[in-house]
Amino acid sequence: MIAAIWNARVVTLLAATLLATVARAGMGRPEDAGLPPIDANTSLLVVSPHPDDETLCCAGAIRRVLAAGGHVSVVWITSGDGSELSMLIVEKSLLKPLAKVRDLAEKRMVEARAATSLLGVDSAQQFFLGYPDGGIKKLLTDNRSKEYHAKFTGETRVPYSDALFPGHPYTGESLERDFAALLDRVQPTLILAPSLADTHPDHAASGALTIRALLRRGELSKGRYWIVHGGEGWPSPRGYMPTIPLNTPLVNEKPPGTPFELTEREEALKLRAVNSYHTQMQFMAPFLLAFVRTTELYF
Description:
Elements: H1 2-25, E1 43-48, H2 53-67, E2 71-78, H3 84-89, H4 98-119, E3 126-131, H5 136-140, H6 172-186, E4 190-194, H7 201-217, E5 223-226, E6 258-261, H8 264-275, H9 278-289, E7 295-298
Parallel strand pairs: 1-2, 1-4, 2-3, 4-5
Antiparallel strand pairs: 6-7
């Protein structure tokens, strides 16, 4: 329910400008939904709300771009420091002492770097913004200019020394500036970001962040979108079943996703990268492995 309300709010905020832009540019047609041609001139940026999202949805596309001689960058909006299940199972604590929360985030960042390095992404192109897990929607609405007090870490500023902009305040304005600075730095020709239809609030908010930035730059055509949280029980069946394609999400995304076919090598490497996320695999392996299929879906 909360996610649905948030999605409706985001669409309301963006709809008028977005529809006008789409109409002027002639975008939004079903034939535009798939990935554009990939070659040595492709500069891909994957926008990942949490560590592991980039691998679940985009590992095949990442490998394809790199194999073609293109460039790939990954930005994690949060460091995954708000997972209560991880705290319980990995850190073995029902409480959330700040030291354990920070330790969990450090573990997840190490795993993210390992997974994306395995896919071939250069360490210099792996960027953490360090904004609060579970708080991205608040930053884009109620806390655009007022500092947000992170529920899990207790922080009001980016606390991670290896983040791209350590010490920046937890506000929507700061997040948008940091994201714009990253776009200036990377100069992507293709951006893969979460869909507004994704039912996780951090994901929908990260998609909104991306769309707003692209609208300001007149670059909406660079965006393609993916879904991790696509409705209860999706993707199905759960678990590792490498011979079948990813099925259609339950959420009502139109036009429907365009399948991106993975080679056997891309699929095998994706499996290895997913298995790099040891903390998450301890309690949600069937969900994570359900994304290792013959296809990825882009909207």
